[in-house]
Amino acid sequence: MAAGNTVADYLKRAVDRLPLDRGNYPYVTARVKAKKSLLLPVETYERLLQMGIPAIARFLGEGQYHDEMLALGARYDGVDLVEMATRDNLATVFTQIIGFSEGSLRDMIGHYLDRWDVWNVKTILRGKFYGATAEEILEDVIPAGSLGLAFLERLVGLETIEEVVEALEDTPYFSAVLGLTVAPGEVTTLAPYEDLLDRLYYVHLLEVIPPASEPTTLFHNFVRLEIDVTNLKTLLRVLGVEGLQTRQLFIPKGRYLRRSDLREMVKLDLPGVLRRLRNTPYHDTLAPYLQEEGGDPARGIRAMENWLLDQASTGSNLHPLSILPVLDYVIAKTREVENIRIVARGKESGLSVEQIREMLVV
Amino acid sequence: MVLAEYKPTRSQLLQVRKTLKLAERGHRLLKLKRDALMIEFFQVLERAREVRSNIVDRYQDAAGKLAVASAIEGRVGVRSASHALLQKPELELTTRNVMGIVVPKIKAEKVRKRIDERGYGIIGTSPRIDAAAEAYEELVEDVIVAAEIETTMRRLIEEIEKVKRRVNALEHRVIPELEDTERFIRLRLEEMERENIFRLKRFKEAGA
Fold it and tell me: What CATH code is assigned to B28-160?
């Protein structure tokens, strides 16, 4: 994961560009398919919606979340136990997938899962800025990426932001957070650094996996679709916000949407944005939510997340021996964890069954 | 006030009459002040009720949005986003005068923030967090307004109580006592006058 400049790195990058692919696709896709069959079916969510928190926790404790529920049962209870156990299970499962995959497939999965590293780096920086305790920060860390738990614990244990930034020197995120040490007293908001980290993740992801062979091209295309969806989500959130510096908000190299187009769209209203999306695959999904001036962009964003889930699923059916089944599983597993959390937290907060059902992405 | 303290002299009578007049004028003015304060209080009370009801509505709205954000982003996501906020609202506390009462005037800045000023990055967070943050910013604004209004209300109540006590003291104690004193001195002086006339008559009879 280190982006060094040694001869070995140079050679690796050169080899990566050759149209050869190494990876245990049949084995990994078979394992992932087996894992996918363990995911909760759609109808289970209806059952969960009718249960209370203790019943949900018991139900999860009897299934694939058994180990985590057991391990965390002494420290947490209720909805916190459900959230922490599902989150830990997510990290464990993703680490397992990286563990049994090989070659370029392993690289691709590893780099894709580095999004959790970005999450962790952001969480640690936020915690350090806010003055949160090491325990508080560690509770929020999800070790599902390349940066292992030991490294993350070391980062959390460091006293100052400068030390954290220094410790990140061998990671691709160093350049994004370097500014935090250049002018430590002048930093009043972490937002630009966080956005830079997110952008850097995708830029790095596309850079380290060039579209040389069919699997890498499939991977590339999917990541670029994801970039489009992320950019659309950002666009819908910043629409109409005056005086916003939009230059750094959008991730480059989306599949159908260019950054210059997105920056122009920021000034439009919802129907205007929809008109600009007419020739893209996103138009039909967003149309019900953006047709009128007072539309519902938040629901549009959920619809786009659903659309991406469908794309991953369709891709995995069309290319069963590629990286797409793995990505499909990663997204589906993440959604499952999110959906369980939505049900549990929604129940805890007293939201109605209809409200919770509307938030689920299934 | 003890009547024995006063010497029944004409100058004392004039002094007591002056004090009585002053007390009566003060009583009238304080009654006017009390009535004006009551009117002001009821106006403030109306605003306070409105703000309170707004706060309740906004709190319910904010709690609902936070619940949705927690459901979608998880406790971890919401807490992590909340840690990103470094800029705290700035409050400027000045005072203003309402009928002689000093009440606070609170000016709040940087409570409501733009999406890029909340500290967390836009790319990696969800619109549900924006909605919750916005709802709580509105709530904080209302809480600040309520703090100003309710402090004003408390000060007004204290002042009304104080003025009411003074009015009552003047009405039921000071003025009646001064009237009694004035009557006592007046009667005493009249008595002394009569005694003097009687004495002079006796002298006249004795001399004849």
Answer: 1.10.287.3240
Confidence of residue A182 (pLDDT cuts 50, 70, 90): low
Look up residue A62 and give its two tokens.
């009897």
**Which chain A residues are within 8 Å of B66, Cβ to Cβ?**
349
Whether A243 shows a pLDDT value over 80: the answer reads no
Measure CB to CB from residue B123 to each of A132, A199, A348 and give the nearest one: A199
Q: Is B114 on the interface with A (CB under 8 A)?
A: yes
- Residue B152 pLDDT grade (very low, low, confident, very high; cuts 50, 70, 90): very high
DSSP string, A202-215: HHHHHHHS-S-SHH
What pLDDT was estimated at residue B12?
A: 92
Q: Do A130 and B79 touch (CB under 8 A)?
A: no
User: And the tokens for A26?
Assistant: 């049949």
B170: DSSP letter:
I
Domain ranges in chain B? 28-160
Kindly report the CATH number that applies to the domain delimited by A114-207: 1.20.1690
Average pLDDT over residues A305-332: 89
In chain B, what residues touch A142 (CB-CB under 8 Å)? 76
Looking at the predicted structure, is the pLDDT value of residue A334 above 60? yes
The whole-angstrom separation of Cα A357 and Cα B88 is 36
- In this prediction the ipTM stands at 0.75
Q: Which of B68, B122, B126 is facing A195, going by the closest CB pair?
A: B122
Cα angle value A314/A319/A324 (rounded, 5°):
70
State how far residue B91 is from chain A, nearest Cα, in angstroms.
18
CA distance A144 to A114: 8
Closest partner residue to A130 among B63, B64, B83, by Cβ?
B83
Mutation pick from A82, A130, A188 vs chain B, by most beta carbons of B within 10 Å, is A130
Query: Number of H helices and number of E strands within chain A?
Result: 21, 0
A277: confidence class by pLDDT, cuts 50, 70, 90: very high
Neighbours of A57 (CB within 10 A): 22
Establish if B71 touches chain A: CB-CB under 8 angstroms.
yes
CA distances (Å), origin B80, targets A136, A165, B87, B179, B202: 10, 18, 15, 74, 107
What count of CB pairs under 8 Å joins A to B? Answer: 135
Of all residues in chain A, the one with the smallest CA distance to B68 is: A346
Half-sphere exposure of B64 (CA within 13 A, CB side): 10
pLDDT at A2 over 50: no
Stretch (H or E) spanning B16: helix B10-83
pLDDT of residue A3: 45
CA B27 to chain centre: 19
What's the pTM? 0.75
